Amino acid sequence: MKYLIIGGVAGGATVAARLRRMDEKAEIILFEKGEYVSYANCGLPYYIGNIIPEREQLFVQTAQGITSRYEIDIRLKSEVLSIDRVAKRVEVKDLSSGEIYSESYDKLVMSPGAEPLKPPVPGINNKCIFTLRNVPDTDRIKEYIKSNSVRSAIVVGGGFIGLEMAENLRHLGIKVDLVEMAPQVMSHLDFSMASIVHLELKAKGVRLHLGKSVEEFKTSGAYVEAVLKGEKSIFADMVIWSIGVKPDSSLAKAAGLELGSTGGIKVNQFLQTSDPNIYALGDAVEVTHLVSGRPALIPLAGPANKMGRIAADNMILGNVSTYTGSIGTGIAKVFDLTVASAGMSGKWLERERIPHIDSYTHSASHAGYYPNALPLSVKISFAPDNGKLLGAQVVGFEGVDKRVEMFASVIRCGGTIYNLMELEHAYAPPFSSAKDPVNMAGFVADNILSKRVNVVTWREIEKIDIKKDLLLDVRTSEENRFASIPGSVNIPVDELRLRLDEIPSDKRIIVYCAVGLRGYLATRILTQNGFRKVFNLSGGYKTYSVATGQPSAFQYFSVKITSGDQIE
Question: Is the Cβ–Cβ distance between 283 and 263 less than 8 Å?
């Protein structure tokens, strides 16, 4: 058998190695348009920022190394121009020599990846404007910074790459302006969780221009000028353009292969395209999002590598393995913060018209009585009928990775909030609390579903009518004096039972505390004393202050979870 592979980064290199392990006698040829194969493109920003000090550390394997170990014919700087599906041949251009030749195949694998979105903004081809997708891009950026003594930069786009570049440019002492067309960074998060990231970016000296778009780039002396819509221009020595990627599906389209509604290559559960002799994988393919059940583009390295193994097995053994889809689990480092998510956010569930309930909890990275416990914020979304977990977002300084992976496992298996309650974690004070933040998220969700508490979100506070509603702050008087929601009345929860006569029975009562748990206790006291219209602010003042940009929001990083707040 003769196998051809188009694309040699994550998925392509994986499928090549797996093919050889499964078939020692097969002829395997891998075509890569670039100069390198099997490199860690997720590590590129950290090499620019000197966090990864040596360039060689970016390469998982070299072409020579793969060839010697697996006897795979790797052809670098070789672009596949066309696919003749009838003759089962591809036309290839050697980019070094200009030679064009053809190669036959029995089975073909397409792993072309994705390419940066680059709309026709006037001036976008300025030599000071860079995209970051591969090693040569990285080399150009690093050399430009060094040669031009770059002191300022504009990053356009607040996704993973944009934020990682903002951080690493700041590590180099470069001033950074970040421009994002949406009202928040990290569009896969809900605004309230992204707002925590905004605080961290501002604290680290990144100037945010949210809800702004670049209309034009101009050259202004030694600087590049970014003309923003609705705001005055900003100037810098260079620009990193990182507004997202699109699947590189042009070759597949030209070959007559079916594309999906997202523009990605359409594949079945075996990763076969509309041509049974051609398989496709990685960032270029359309997959099923396992929460919505609908087509999606999920350009992540983890799924791409899994696809590589599955495609190789299916080509050799005859469609024995399936790729069912992805829940889009992702994580990013943003300076000292870690930001992670799995499944779908509340806003995406809303757009897909999937019924859901959102719940916020704030805990600590480990037991509060053990030194150096740090804030950890969680938002989950779940189905209102059966508690099925639909999405989770975690933001904090430590322990975010293990929590999001616990959530992801439950979502991936179609589990519920009740599974969160049951999850058994490894507990010792330096690592967790007896009730882990994941358990706590389940407990709070259970209280909501079982109607032990009714909740409102921070957005609903704006709709409060003080003639009909009582906003009740049950924090201590010291907390209230420091900062509070305008129009609220302060009755500490420890005094509540003695002051019930101060609370009107004809009004809707909205209770809040620091993070939601004292508020829950207060709602239980009130409802069991005859008050019928009682609601708790999910996530408490902590979520409200961050999401609404209150002056006290910066206290997010220093607010500790007390033992009283830990009681469910």
Answer: no
Domain boundaries, the chain: 2-39+51-113+246-317, 129-243, 330-449, 455-566
Q: Is the per-residue pLDDT at 552 higher than 90?
A: no
User: Does the structure show a pLDDT above 60 at 477?
Assistant: yes
Exposed (0-12), middle (13-18) or buried (19+): which is 371, by Cβ within 10 Å?
exposed
The share of the chain scoring above pLDDT 70, in percent, equals: 97
CB under 8 Å to 329, separation ≥6 — which residues? 300, 302, 340, 341, 342, 404, 405, 408
Fold of 455-566: Oxidized Rhodanese; domain 1 (3.40.250)
Say whether domain 2-39+51-113+246-317 belongs to CATH 3.40.50.1000: no
- Give the total residue count for the chain: 568
Residue tagged active-site, from 42, 128, 413, 513: 42
The residues that bridge with 96 in the sheet, in sequence order, are none
Residue 129: phi, psi to the nearest 5?
Answer: -110, 125
**What separation in angstroms does the CA of 200 have from each of 195, 205, 546?**
9, 9, 11
Helix 301-317 crosses helix 10-22 at what angle (to 10 degrees)? Answer: 30
Contact 439/420 with Cβ under 8 angstroms?
yes
Binning pLDDT at 50, 70 and 90, where does residue 567 land?
A: very low
Compute the average pLDDT of residues 484-493.
95
CATH no. for 330-449: 3.50.50.60
Reported as a single tens digit per residue, the pLDDT across 350-407 is 999 999 999 999 999 999 899 999 999 999 999 999 999 999 999 999 999 999 999 9
Q: Are 305 and 10 in contact (CB under 8 A)?
A: yes
Q: Residue 109 has which token pair?
A: 């694998």
Residue 169: exposed, middle, or buried by beta-carbon count in 10 A (0-12, 13-18, 19+)?
buried
Q: What percent of the chain has pLDDT over 90?
A: 87
Q: For 129-243, CATH number?
A: 3.50.50.60
Q: Active site includes 413?
A: no
Q: How far apart are CA 73 and CA 20, in angstroms?
A: 11
- 129-243 and 455-566 share one fold: no
CA 364, CA 561: separation in Å to the nearest integer?
A: 6
Distant-in-sequence, close-in-space partners of 93: CB < 8 Å, separation ≥ 6: 78, 79, 81, 99, 100
Q: Write down the residue that tokens 């034009």 correspond to.
A: 216
Beta-strand pair 278-280/107-110: parallel
